[in-house]
Design brief:
The chain contains nine helices and 22 strands. It is α+β, with helices and mostly antiparallel strands and 400 residues long.
Length: 400
C-alpha cells in the first residue's frame, strides 16, 4: 500500500559534502553567510553585511516577514583551527534599506532579499576577528534568526483609554552596544503605529546613529528619543547620569500601561529593576511585569535584580524535581537547572553559562521557574527558558 514515502536516490547530506568541497558557500541544508562589507557606525560599533546562501533564503522564506526586529544569529567561525559560536543582533528587518548607505546607489543595486546585517562591538576573540581580521568574501555557518526579544512575544499589546482600544506605548532602553537589537524593533513598532520612546545611554556619540533617530523622528511624530551621553551632564534626564526613578517619571509616560524593552549591561538592567520597584503603580500592578530584557556581556548570576539584593547561594533553596520528558530522566534541583543536571550526571546543552549564548535554551512543558538575573518568575505553561540562569520554583517538566 502506498504511504507517500519517497526515498532519496541521492542523499542531500552527500550532495552537501561534495558541494562544500567545490565551494564553501554551497549547501542544500546548511545556512551560510558570505561577508561582503563592513561599516563603522560609531567608535565602538561595527556593522557587517553578509550575502546569504540558497539554504538560508529557502528556510527563511518559511518565516512570515523574514525575521522579527530584535532577533539575532548564532555565527560559527573557525579561528586557528578551533570553532567558536557567538550570538549577534540583526540590524533592521528583512527587505529594509540600510540607513547608512546611499539609497540611490548601493541599496538598489544590491538585492536586499539576499543580504543580512549584524552589528558587533569589537571585544573578545571572535568579535575582534570578525570586525578586524576575517577577509571579505569569507564564509561562516549561521543559524536562522533566533530570539524572543520581539514585539510578537510581548504579552501586553493593548490597553484601554476611555473605553477605546489603543496601542500600548513602548519604551526602549539601551546601554552602549545594547542599541543593536533596537534598530529593527523600533522600525517595526513605528510602522505598526506604536508610540515609541527611546533612551540610549552611551559613553560615545555617533553622528550616524543621531542622524538615524532624527530621520525617524521626522517621519513619525510618535517617536521620541533621548541620547544620554554619560560624560555630558547636559544630556542627563532629571539631572542624573544613570537610569533612575526621576528619569523614568520625567518621560511623562503612562508607565502602568507601557511595555519596556531593555538591552544593556547588568548594571543598566539592575538600575532599571531597582527604579521599577520604587515606582508606585495602581493596585495589583508592578512595573517589573512590563519589562522584557535582553542582556550581553558578563552576567552577574548572583544578583537578584528585581529586589537589588544579593542572591546568597549558601541559603538553601527549596528542592524540586526536574523531569526530562524525552529522555525519561529526572533529578532533584535546588540550584540552577543546568548545575543541578550536572550534579546528577545528566548532560544538557550549554555554552557560556551566563545567559548570553542561548545554547542552553530549551522548552519548558510545565512548572514555574525564576530567572536569577532578573528575578522574573515564569508562568506554569509551555515556554522557552535558559537552564543556566533559571531555578525551579515548582516541579518542572522539560521537553528534553
Amino acid at each position: 500500500m502506498a504511504n507517500g514515502y519517497r526515498p532519496e536516490i541521492v542523499q542531500r547530506a552527500f550532495v552537501d559534502f561534495i558541494g562544500s568541497r567545490l565551494h564553501p558557500f554551497w549547501s542544500l541544508t546548511t545556512p551560510k553567510l558570505r561577508l561582503i562589507a563592513r561599516y563603522t557606525l560609531s567608535d565602538d560599533l561595527i556593522a557587517l553585511r553578509f550575502e546569504t546562501n540558497r539554504a538560508f533564503r529557502q528556510q527563511i522564506s518559511k518565516m512570515m516577514g523574514g525575521w522579527q526586529g530584535g532577533q539575532y544569529l548564532d555565527l560559527r567561525v573557525c579561528i586557528d583551527g578551533v570553532y567558536y559560536q557567538r550570538s549577534y543582533s540583526i540590524v533592521g528587518l528583512a527587505h529594509q534599506l540600510l540607513w547608512w548607505l546611499d539609497d540611490t546607489t548601493e541599496n538598489h543595486t544590491a538585492n536586499q532579499r539576499h543580504t543580512v546585517t549584524i552589528a558587533i562591538k569589537p571585544q573578545g576573540l571572535v568579535s575582534d576577528y570578525l570586525t578586524k581580521q576575517i577577509p571579505l568574501a569569507s564564509v561562516v555557518d549561521t543559524s536562522l534568526p533566533l530570539g524572543q526579544f520581539t514585539l510578537e512575544q510581548t504579552s501586553i499589546l493593548r490597553y484601554e483609554i476611555s473605553d477605546n482600544k489603543q496601542l500600548t506605548p513602548l519604551l526602549f532602553i539601551a546601554g552602549g552596544s545594547g542599541i543593536t537589537p533596537m534598530f529593527g524593533l523600533i522600525t517595526q513598532a513605528l510602522s505598526n503605529g506604536y508610540q515609541v520612546t527611546l533612551l540610549h545611554y552611551s559613553r560615545t556619540v555617533s553622528s550616524k546613529l543621531q542622524h538615524q533617530w532624527q530621520q525617524l523622528n521626522d517621519a513619525y511624530p510618535d517617536f521620541i528619543y533621548h541620547l544620554i551621553h554619560t560624560e555630558d551632564p547636559t544630556t542627563y534626564l532629571a539631572g542624573t547620569r544613570y537610569l533612575s526613578v526621576e528619569g523614568l517619571l520625567s518621560l511623562n509616560l503612562p508607565l502602568a500601561d507601557t511595555q519596556i524593552f531593555a538591552c544593556g549591561s547588568q548594571a543598566l538592567l539592575a538600575g532599571l529593576y531597582k527604579a521599577a520597584a520604587e515606582i508606585t503603580l495602581p493596585i495589583d500592578k508592578q512595573l517589573s511585569d512590563n519589562i522584557t530584557v535582553e542582556n550581553f556581556g558578563n552576567a552577574l548570576a548572583d544578583v537578584d535584580i528585581s529586589t537589588n539584593q544579593t542572591f546568597n547561594k549558601t541559603i538553601p533553596v527549596e528542592e524540586h524535581t526536574i523531569y526530562l520528558r524525552s529522555r525519561q530522566r529526572q533529578f532533584s534541583s535546588d540550584t540552577t537547572i543546568l548545575v543541578a543536571a550536572e550534579n546528577a550526571d545528566v548532560r544538557l546543552a550549554h555554552g557560556c553559562r551566563q545567559g548570553i549564548c542561548q545554547l542552553c535554551r530549551c522548552n519548558k512543558v510545565s512548572g514555574v521557574v525564576k530567572n536569577v538575573q532578573t528575578g522574573k518568575v515564569s508562568g506554569d505553561g509551555y515556554e522557552s527558558i535558559q537552564t543556566c540562569i533559571n531555578i525551579a520554583m515548582t516541579d518542572v517538566v522539560l521537553d528534553v
